[in-house]
Amino acid sequence: MAGELPEHFKCPISLEIMRDPVILSSGHTFDRSSIQRWLDAGHRTCPITKLPLPDQPILIPNHALRSLISNFTPLTPTPIPNPTPTRSQPQTLISTLTSQASSSSSKLDSLHQLTRLAKRDSLFRRRLSESGIVPPLLSCVDSHDHDSLRDNALSLLLNLSLDDHNKVGLVAEGVVSRLVAIISGTAAGTPSPDCRAIAATTLTSLAVVEVNKATIGAYPHAIESLVSLVRDGKGREKKEAATALYALCSFPDNRRRAVECGAVPVLLRSVDCGLERAVEVVGVLAKCKEGREQMERFHGCVQILSRVLRNGSSRGVQYALLALNSLCCGSEVASMDAIREGLLETCLAFLEDDNEKVRRNASALLQNLRGNNRIS
Predict the structure, then answer these.
(1) Is residue 178 within 8 Å of residue 187, measured between CB atoms?
(2) Residues in domain U-box (predicted)?
(3) Which residues, at least 6 apart from 256, have a Cβ–Cβ distance to it below 8 Å?
């Protein structure tokens, strides 16, 4: 299986398929365990660029790549005439997409070929973007009468977005408006759940770049459409929408936008229904005053987060503790609810957890519940 996966699915350090891809401040992605070992050994430079890193490097989860790896289906081996694409080959395929004389089937075949090549070659993705592929792809996304064209064009846009050099350019060329239209259901035709999931994943990928977080968050109905998809979506599309919100809400202004769109009750209900990715967004929204106020007003908020502490994964526990700590720091009512839920004992147990962030968040919450640093 590993031999069939694209090279960018492999960690540059271990050369193994990444299980938990994270982005270093240098912009490069590594498997969390590999880069953590590098940092624990005292290195404070990027293994690839050799540029210096902060004393406390931040590892940002690359949810878009993780989703691609988990949902990857190996292609049936087929002969590829030119394993290393020539400069003329993509132009021929692009010309097929732009020509009014091209049939839908020939356009679809061109998209399949371009996607297959782009999946496996980062240099080809960059060159493809520079060759003017984005406008014809957006035309396919706008297709009124061919869902397969739209779906395959969207998949290629997602692959192009994985290259950091392409992210800002894709936003500048108008990709966000199409993604929002698909997610919100205002696009032509009826986008499938998979199509909406891919659109949300593409937003997550684009939001890796800080300036794109601000641009996407400010785009009309972008955050609102993601909140609606978390509320009304099914399965993968709901999870990918929550992931996109998490990526966007690392930018402070977007937290307030999400709260104004009603994200807090939607996310808490989703957490209660088992969508653990939603608790990560709740943890981030708890960092803003407006988010905490909404949580205080939501009946059963502390109880829902307490259930994550009892039954969730290590990452879910980490963010539930983060949200509870932010909430209890400024709310006597929330603190009393937490104590009634037995969280003093729970936090004591987490002080021995293997996850350093769980231990740190549990210690902070324990101090709050014992009366330290209480905000009246």
Answers:
(1) yes
(2) 4-79
(3) 288, 290
